[in-house]
Amino acid sequence: MRPDDVRELARSAPYRWIELDLVHRSSGGEHLEVSLRHGVLTGRDVAHGRDLRDTQWPPSSFFRLVEPYPTNYRWCAMLDPYELSRDVDLSEIAEGELFGRPVVSFVAHAEDGYDPICTCCPLVYSEASERHEQPDGWTPAPGQFPDGVELALDREVGIVVSSRDRGGRLGGWFTTEITRVDR
């Protein structure tokens, strides 16, 4: 796959599925088992022992329709990774498999102009994303940001199924296993 093919897959993700069953885990301790039908999320927050049901579009949905989320806007970006379609350099593109499903993996580096779905929860945490959150004249600390973010998109539905910062102070990661898809 070429970078433009990956960008098109990311742009088309919301149109590639009707309903998903997912198991989501992250470096922040999240462990969610959910079913998602566009606009309705149900399931279980296994880590905290509570049931989930959300049928509300997030407040920013008037900018771009996004799915209900149980954690933060990174969840919305994971399901609709359109922010990877421009102002992001994609390198080390490889096809493979994760959780028994075909994926395309790559390393993403945000460029000037990168516009994440939410500036505090970007898929590509970087100096470019943080500039949206900081005042004019802000200077990042050395080693604050990763040297890119390793991402994988499911080849069938286009959502992000794996993310891992390469270095940086946060060292964040998540995986999302698709256990069922209805197209």
Question: Can you offer a commentary on this structure?
Answer:
The protein has 183 residues and is mainly beta. It has a single domain, classed as outer membrane lipoprotein receptor (LolB), chain A (Clam), CATH 2.50.20. The chain contains three helices and nine strands; from the N terminus they run αββββαββαβββ. The protein has a nine-stranded antiparallel sheet. The longest helix has 10 residues. It starts with a helix and ends with a strand. The mean pLDDT is 91.
Topology:
Blueprint: H1 3-12, E1 19-26, E2 31-37, E3 40-45, E4 50-54, H2 73-79, E5 88-98, E6 101-110, H3 127-130, E7 149-154, E8 160-165, E9 173-182
Antiparallel strand pairs: 1-2, 1-9, 2-3, 3-4, 5-6, 6-7, 7-8, 8-9
Short description:
The chain is mainly beta and 183 residues long. It has three helices and nine strands.
Number of strands: 9
Strands side by side in the biggest sheet: 4-3-2-1-9-8-7-6-5
| Quaternary structure type | single chain
Q: How is the main sheet built?
A: 9 strands, antiparallel
